[in-house]
Amino acid sequence: MSTKIRGGYRLAEGTNPFEFIRGLRAVLDPVRDRADGALLARLFATAADTRWLAGEPVPPLLGVKAFTDWEARQSSLAAGSRAKDPHRFQMCLGEDPVTGRLLARAYAEHPELVSAFEAMPAVEPYSYWDDADAPGTVTEEEWDERRAAWERVLPDYGVPAEHMLSFVLRTEANPGTMMLAGMNGGAADPVLSRFPTRAERAITMAETTYRGHLIASGHDQRYASSRAFSSRTDLSLVAGAIEPFLPELTRTLLLEGSGGSKSGAAVRATVAAACAAAATANSADPGQ
Question: Is-contact 125 8, C-beta < 8 A?
Fold first, then answer.
């Protein structure tokens, strides 16, 4: 059976695990806030744009509702889903009984979290596998030392949670992300400073609007989705029609709503005509 210790690290000699975790949190919490802020900014933008283009007022606390809806979708995902908890950072720490060095396994998908962790002075990459060649930067003796160290920390390469101490940057109950939804950070707020550009918002809305147009035209949902979200589909006509009508995203709009203000029927007529023109243009593409 092959052995694969991906995301393996060794901490500097003499590292105190509790001091390390305090320092780790100081490094990663701001990174997590930035990632969460960008996620919330996209959620809030899509929620507001969808309401506005549908001719509906933006209701008070729309940002909070968009976040709670996202949380509900997260709760329904299986534990192993790659879409679940996209900004997680988990770590297991174990002591090598021979050398006294601490080995760590980190679990994270967001590249900025991984990069920030690996940039910490006490952290040294220390993965091991035997199903492929060792990295060119590691000697054969060093590779054998890694194998032996991991065998001591994880006897029979057992489950890390059964042999190592576990650390989670934020649990599901942590209110940190929800607190960001208040957008109280001023100009540098992690959400307010990370809204997508109007062009990016227009593309997002063009995809969902064009999908709706295809379904309303009699196509099934699978066909509509495959066309609307395909890189082969030219949605420039739709995005160009949508962008001028997008609302200005502000803290006031997302928390207090639009006060009953909404877009007019002319907006929907303009976007519908663009969708029809795009459907005609894309039907000429043999790949569509």
Answer: yes
The two three-digit tokens of residue 64, written as one number:
């909070």
pLDDT in tens, 210-266: 999 999 999 999 999 999 999 999 999 999 999 999 999 999 999 999 999 999 999
Question: What's the rounded Cα separation, in Å, for the pair 185 and 176?
Answer: 13
Q: Residue 285 — very low, low, confident or very high, per pLDDT cuts 50/70/90?
A: low
For residue 246, the 8-state DSSP code is P
Q: Is the dihedral of CA 213, 216, 222, 223 positive or negative?
A: negative
Q: What's the pLDDT tens digit per position in 69-102?
A: 999 999 999 888 888 899 999 999 999 999 999 9
- Give the up-direction half-sphere exposure of residue 270: CA atoms within 13 A in the CB hemisphere: 15
| Rounded average pLDDT over 152-161 | 87
3-state class (DSSP) for residue 123? strand
What is this structure's pTM?
Answer: 0.87
Beta strands in the chain (DSSP E): 4-5, 8-11, 90-95, 102-107, 123-125, 128-129, 165-168
**b/e burial code for range 177-205 (CB count within 10 A of at least 16 → b):** beebbebeeeeebbbbebbbebeebbbbb
**How many other CB atoms are found less than 10 A from the CB of residue 68?**
12
Beta-carbon-side half-sphere exposure of residue 180 (alpha carbons within 13 Å): 27
3-state DSSP call for residue 89?
coil
Q: Are 104 and 11 in contact (CB under 8 A)?
A: yes
Q: Where are the domains of the chain?
A: 4-168, 196-283
Q: Which residues pair with 5 in a beta bridge?
A: 128
What are the angstrom distances between the C-alpha of 141 and each of 101, 129, 137, 155?
18, 14, 12, 21
Mean pLDDT of 268-272: 96
**What is the maximal distance between C-alpha atoms in the chain?**
75
